[in-house]
């Protein structure tokens, strides 16, 4: 058995801890293999991999891309890609620009609603990386507009609330294809939390597999044993690799675990998986 965590977020996106802090925590929790998968950015990956080497932990280059597939927002994890691949970096730039435009529009909506929040205040929360709604919520709490960041989402920032602005997303198939061309391994993250209709799991997997999907995240937060079993079976039917991660952000009160998941030694070809670029 081996302890892994292939889904982690740092201060380069919406996580609480820096890449180096994450590695120290992973080491303390006896995690053997880990990947930093920040949202739409690889800014923290080199620091993460350097820290992994210093602490004798096997680290894998990673990213989590937000995408659109038939009206649903799907998150595609990428592993072992070339950090300097021009096309992938162009895609990440487009994602960051879309996030920035959305942040600006949401700040303008909040200001018009009587809660003055500037884009500069939001982006100051992430000196290196990508800002998002969690950082808007931080500013709202710090300025006394809401008692908690959760309240900011519940009343103002989530879909259907007054300050929500949808983000322009790239097609899931395009994200998968770019990751493949960058030498990466695309994996669909927390699949059944992404779909409004769970019966769409199988046809969605078929379409994503055709585009080049490499794996399916089968162990993820909120997944019951029945959900994990279903994911394992459907991935196996399609020859997809099965991965595990806790989507760790480090926020208090959410029951997040950095300790990862204990899986069989032969779940993935580990020597090859961890020997990729980065």
Overall number of strands: 9
Helix run count: 11
User: What's the rounded overall pLDDT mean?
Assistant: 94
Largest β-sheet summary:
9 strands, mixed
CATH architecture of the largest domain: Alpha-Beta Barrel
Indicate the multimeric state: single chain
Q: How many separate structural domains?
A: 2
How does this structure look, described?
The protein is α/β, with parallel strands linked by helices and 278 residues long. The chain has two domains: 2-91 and 171-273, Metal-dependent hydrolases (TIM Barrel), CATH 3.20.20; 97-157, DNA polymerase, domain 1, CATH 1.10.150.650. The chain is 41% helix and 18% strand. It has eleven helices and nine strands. It has helices at residues 19-28, 45-54, 86-112, 119-123, 133-142, 149-157, 172-181, 191-194, 201-211, 225-237, 270-273, and strands spanning 2-8, 33-36, 58-69, 72-79, 170-171, 185-188, 215-219, 241-244, 261-263. Strands 1, 2, 3, 4, 5, 6, 7, 8 and 9 form a nine-stranded mixed beta sheet that branches. β1, α1 (19-28) and β2 (33-36) form a beta-alpha-beta unit. The longest helix has 27 residues, at 86-112. The radius of gyration is 18 Å and the shape is globular. It starts with a strand and ends in a 5-residue tail after the last helix. The model has no long low-confidence stretch (mean pLDDT 94).
